[in-house]
Amino acid sequence: MPTPLTRRTFLASTSAAALAARLPVPASARKLRILVLGGTGFLGPAVVNAGRARGHEFTLFNRGRTNPELFKDVEQLRGQRRRPNPKNPKAEPQDLKSLENRKWDAVVDTSAYFTGEVEDMCKVLAGNVGQYVYISSISVYKTLEQDASPVDEQSPLCECADKYTLEIGKNYENYGALKRYCEDAVEAAFPGKATRIRPGYIVGPGDPTDRFTYWPARFLRGGECLAPGAPDNDLQFLDVRDLGEWIVHTIENKVVGAFNAVGFDGRISTAEFLHTGKGTLNHGCSFTWVDDAFLEANNVSPWGEMGCWTPTAKNGHSDNRRSLAAGARYRPIAETIRDTAAWVKDGRGNGKWSAGMTAEREVELLAKWKAR
User: What are the DSSP calls for 304-315, one per residue?
Assistant: First the structure.
C-alpha cells in the first residue's frame, strides 16, 4: 500500500529521485556541507530534503522546539540566535557557541529578522562558511508598500529610523526595512559570497499560514465559491519545494546576488488558478465573481480572510527574470494544489486555521452580493 500522505512524509520523506531530477547537477558536483539556521519549520525542511536528495550533508542550528521529531539522522546544534529584547525580562540569552570553530561550504539563513542578530551570526561564521544564503522577502521594496508599482531587484528599498530595533511593529511596519538591513549585513560580511533571496508568498503542504491552503480546502468542499476580484488579476506564489530545490541549486553553482523568488515562468491569472483547482480536485465547484470594491467595503482582508487575492490596484508584480536565468524552476500549479489538498485531508496538523473565510461568512457575502 502507498505511504500515507502526512506532514512527516512531506517534510522528511520527499522522493529523492523526483527532487534530484528536477535540476541539473553541475559538472563540478561534489558533496557539500550545508548549515541551515532553523531547518525544521516550513522552508527549512524543503531545503534539507532537496539537498539530501542530491547527496549533500546538513547541519541544523536551532533551539530544538519546532518539529523536533524531524531529521533524527541529521546533525543538530542547539543554541539561540535571538538577542534578548529588553522589554521581555524572561528572554533567553543569545547562545551561538555551538557554531564556533566549525566549517561549512554554505549557510542557509531562514530565520533572521533583526539586523544585529544577523551581524552576530556573520561574525561567528565569517571565514568558516563559503557562501551565505539569506532568505529575505519582497517586502523589502518601497514601492510595493506605497503604490504597487512593478519591481525588480534594482527597485528602491524600504527604510526605517532605527535599523537595530527589535520591534517589527504592531502592523509589521518595520518588517520590510529590517529584512533589507539584514541583507546589507550579510553582503557586508560576505562580499561576493552572499545570495539574497526575496520570496513572495511561499505555499504548499506544511504551510503554517493557511493563506494559500484555504483554496485547496475550499475546492474539496465544492459548491458555489466566492471568486475574489478581477478574473484576470495576476497571481504570484511559489511552491516551497521549488524554492528549496532552487536554494540548493544556488549553492551548487555559487549563484550570488539579489533575486526575486516568485512564480512563474509565464503569467497565471486568478481565473486560471481557480479553474485549475476545480479541474484537479472537484468539478462540483462553481464560481461567483465578486469585485474588489465590494470585498474591501465588507472588510475582507487580502491573503488573510480571502486567500490568493490582492485588489488589482494594490497588486504589484515582482519581476522574476533574474531567478529564472539563475535556474529557478516551477512545478505545475495543479501539483501544488493537489498535494496541498492531500495534506489538508490528512489533517493539516489539526490545528486552528490561521487564515481563510468561514463557510458561514462566504454564504453571507454571496447573499449580500446578489442582493446589492
Answer: TTBTT---GGG-
Three-state DSSP state, 248 = helix
Query: Which contacts of 358-365 are long-range, i.e. CB under 8 A and separated by 24 or more positions?
Result: 359/221, 361/305, 362/225, 362/226, 365/226, 365/290, 365/295, 365/298, 365/300
Collect all residues with Cβ–Cβ distance below 8 Å to 89 and sequence separation of at least 6. none
Q: What is the DSSP letter of 84?
A: P
Q: Is the peptide bond before 61 cis (omega within 30 degrees of 0)?
A: no
Tally the C-alpha atoms within 13 A of residue 202's C-alpha that lie toward its C-beta: 23
- Closest among 174, 166, 193 to 87, alpha carbons compared: 166
| All domains in the chain, ordered by first residue | 7-370 (3.40.50.720)
Instruction: Kindly state the cell numbers that stand for 320.
Output: 522574476
Q: pTM to 2 decimals?
A: 0.91
Q: What is the pLDDT along the chain (372 residues), one digit of tens a residue?
A: 333 334 443 344 344 434 444 555 554 468 999 999 999 999 999 999 999 999 999 999 999 999 999 999 999 999 999 999 888 888 899 999 999 999 999 999 999 999 999 999 999 999 999 999 999 999 999 986 566 788 999 999 999 999 999 999 988 999 999 999 999 999 999 999 999 999 999 999 999 999 999 999 999 999 999 999 999 999 999 999 999 999 999 999 999 999 999 999 999 999 999 999 999 999 999 999 999 999 999 999 999 999 999 999 999 899 999 999 999 999 999 999 999 999 999 999 888 999 999 999 999 999 999 999
| Amino acid found at 176 | G
